[in-house]
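Protocol step 4 of 6.
Sequence for Protein N-acetyltransferase, RimJ/RimL family (Micromonospora rhizosphaerae) entered exactly as in the expression construct, tag removed. Do not edit the line below.
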Amino acid sequence: MTPELVEAYGVRLRLFRLDDAADTAAGCADPVTQRGISGMPYPYTEETARWWITEGAPAAWAAGGAAYAIADPATDRLLGGIGLSQVVPARGQAEIGYWVAPWARGRGVATAATRALAEQAFAAGTARLELLTNDENTASQRVALAAGFRHEGVRRAANPSRGGGRHDLIAWVRLADDPPGPTARLLPDLPGGRLTDGVVTLRRIAPGDADVMFRLHTLPEVVANQAPPVPPTRAAIDRRCRLAETAWLTGSLARLLMLDAATGEPAGSCGLSYSDPAAGEASVGYALLPAWRGRGYASRAVRLLAVWAFGLPGITRLVAGTLPDNTASHRVLEKVGFRREGLLLGRLPGLNGGRIDDLVFGLLAADLRAGH
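Step 5 output, C-alpha cells:
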C-alpha cells in the first residue's frame, strides 16, 4: 500500500481535496489534457472534478490502486494528478498514469511525480509498472524515458478514440530491479536539434513536412529505387511525419529532412535505423529532389549522418542497400567511404511476387572520408 503523502524530486503527492476542484477542472478541461487522455470526461466541469475528488479517487484507492494530486511543495497548489490503476496483484503489476495542468508544464513535474510514485509502488511490492501513451504523445513518451521506463512495443487499437474508432498505444515498462535514472536512448536527439556542415542541414522530420515528403517519395525515379517499387499514399506520408518523433524516441528510426543550409529550402530526406542492434549495425537511406541532384548534397547528408551515428554508443558499422543499376547512389556512398560488400540475390520484394537484388555497401568509422 502506497502512503497518502509523498514528497520527492521537488513535488508533493497528496490526496485530492475539495478545494482542488477549480484547478482540477481547469487542468482536465485543457485541450492538451483532453487530447492526451481520450477517456477524460468531456466537458470537464467543476462538478466533474468534485465527483472525482469525492468518489472517483477514493474508488481508485479502494481497488488497490492510488490517486494522488500533484502539488507544489512550497504553496500546495495543485499541479496535476497521478495514480495507479489496472492493478493485477497476482502479477505484481500496475499501470501508472498522469496529467499536468497548463500552468505547471515545462518544469519536469510529470517526470518527478512519475519517479516518486514508481519508487513508492516498488517499495510496496509492485514488480512491474506499465505506462501507456498515445502514439503521437511525444511529450509523455519523453516523460517515460526520463523516469526510467523502457519501450516495450505497440498495443494495436488498444484505446477508444474520442469521437469513435480506436488508436494504438505505446507501451513503456519499468521493473522493480531496473537501474535508476533515465533510460538510455538508442537514438538520442541531434545536438541543438540539427546537423550541418554549412552547406547541408539535417533536422528531424515534423508533421508540417508532409507536403514535401509526399512530393519527394512519389517521384517515379524515387519509387523505382525502393522495394517494393510502390508509391506511398498521402495518408501514409502524413502518418509517417506525425510519428517521426515517436519513431525516434522508441529507437526504431531516425527520419531527417535535408535542407539547403543557406536558404532553408528542402532538398531531400535521409534516415537511419538499427538493422542489427546487437552487432552495432545500422542502415542508412536517402533521396533527393530533382533540383538538388548532382551538387554533392546527398554525400554531404550521408556523411553528416555517419559522423553522428558513429558517435552513438553501440553503432560501429553502417550499411546501405542499393539497386544494382543505381549508379548515382553508388557514387554517393563511395564518396563518403562506403565499400561494396556483395550482391544479395532476390533479397527484396518486387512487384507481382517478383524479387529484387540488393547491392550492399558497408562503412566503418575508420573508413569515413572527410567532406570537401
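Step 6, annotate. The chain has two domains: 6-175, 191-367.
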